């Protein structure tokens, strides 16, 4: 009889460490949408954020605890987790941080406080300016305080990969004695090799007093491209929790990719002493959701979820796959949610066929609200009428992304709680227009009503734009000229209407399928234009909020206008009540 395998705990930190990716700003509704999807995916623990960073961050974590924590959709049945997702809040070893984290997550049926403190000599001496003895004392006091509030406590020794192993064992033993139930071992700067990291996990498990009573966890960064390899080495040496993100997003070169770790275990069931409870068929749709809402594009050759992951260009490979897919495919595309049949829907397809196709692509059940489904179906019918070749799976993914982007651009539909309003915040100067009247909750402020563009060779591009302003209850029209094409003219006209100086940070156009009548998918990223001279430094790139917008249309100028307006609506809904801390202030290195 084969040995019983341990269940691997998947700790997802997409909404905390992943959101530290430069330029990523998610509003509360977007974080809740991603949290719901991660719950359906089967994630065991969700690190929802860093609650003390600001009232907006606290509100986002609290709403996830209340609205997503109790959900069981997709989590029951054979091979599934069969219990609610643990909602976790991060805290420094500071009483106010810990209390705030607990207050944010306490309403989830299962909740956790994650506390951290650096243990490497370089961090103790130069950053914290404390001795080893003071470090141990702080761990004892703060882990103990967290334990008095919550039974599930995780402790992370920051920069564990460069800490003295003997002192690290001592620090972890103190954390266990104070009440920690999970010990997370971060390779904070992505320095370790798989051999070193695996040996470290083994050493800590064998030499830390009380190690047998806790779960050891990995947390690896990808600075040397070894995050997944290091994580798997940790599992092989006794770690039973992995801290990961969708698409591997995160600070600098990113974090360990959730889908890569799970599919390694899925593909090599006899090589690892663990099993997972993740619904791998939701990987592709989850990856696209995170890509679209975060604005972090997935590279085409990304393992598991990249657009080229299951494409074969070589004639020899194509011949082999046609004869037997196993000749060159070690993973079945459908196992990660990639439908290779790509049967197109047409203008005669009805709601039932459309819904079935969405379910096949991973958008079934609660993935879309009824309003989003109806909006997506309306866009599908418009597209089907204009495309001779039919609506492809790529088109369907783009339509869902478009609908999500436009509906979530309205920002929070729930007012902040009294607890949030009373909490102190990291001071952030708000622009004067942040205090303007806002539209009703769940309603976008600006909607494109009319667009007319004149352009051509030897002609100065001109754009006339009409937007409906939900706050003023009126249509507003303006016109703009540009030297650099119709897109610039369109964006300039929109800026003139809203009266805000905007910096365009990124503009991307992609076709969702082949043919001249293909759907164009446009993604933009914007920020309020700085009033100060630009500095020759990368540091400011994450210090101000960035806003992503996405839209689709067979006319790429119309798609560009709608994507820009979607980003503008995100910016205007980023009001004081839902004000997130700046990227700089919520940044935490673990």
What does this structure look like?
- There is one protein chain.
- By secondary structure, the protein is an alpha/beta fold.
- The chain has 18 helices and 16 strands.
- The strands form 4 sheets. An 8-stranded parallel beta barrel has the order 2-3-4-5-6-7-8-9, surrounded by 8 helices. It has a 3-stranded antiparallel beta sheet with strand order 11-12-13.
- The radius of gyration is 25 Å and the shape is globular.
- The protein starts with 5 loop residues before the first strand and ends with a helix.
- Residues 312-322, 424-434 and 532-542 have low confidence and may be disordered.
What are the SSEs and their pairings?
Blueprint: E1 6-7, E2 9-12, H1 28-41, E3 45-49, H2 55-67, E4 86-92, H3 95-105, E5 111-118, H4 121-128, H5 132-149, E6 153-158, H6 165-178, E7 182-187, H7 194-207, E8 215-220, H8 227-236, E9 241-244, H9 258-267, E10 274-275, H10 283-294, H11 315-323, H12 351-360, H13 370-386, H14 393-408, H15 418-422, E11 446-456, E12 459-469, E13 474-481, H16 486-498, E14 502-511, E15 520-528, E16 547-553, H17 556-573, H18 583-586
Parallel strand pairs: 1-10, 2-3, 2-9, 3-4, 4-5, 5-6, 6-7, 7-8, 8-9
Antiparallel strand pairs: 11-12, 12-13, 14-15, 15-16
- Low-pLDDT segments, ≥5 res: 312-322, 424-434, 532-542
Based on secondary structure, the structural category is: alpha/beta
C-alpha Rg (nearest Å): 25 Å
Let me know the number of strands.
Answer: 16
Strand order of the largest sheet: 2-3-4-5-6-7-8-9
- Mean pLDDT over the residues: 87
- Determine the fraction of residues in helical runs and give it as a percent range: 25-40%
Please tally the helical runs, counting DSSP H or I stretches of 4 or more residues.
Answer: 18
What kind of sheet is the major sheet?
8 strands, parallel, barrel
Please tell me what the overall shape is: globular
Strand content: 15-25%
Distance between the termini: 41 Å
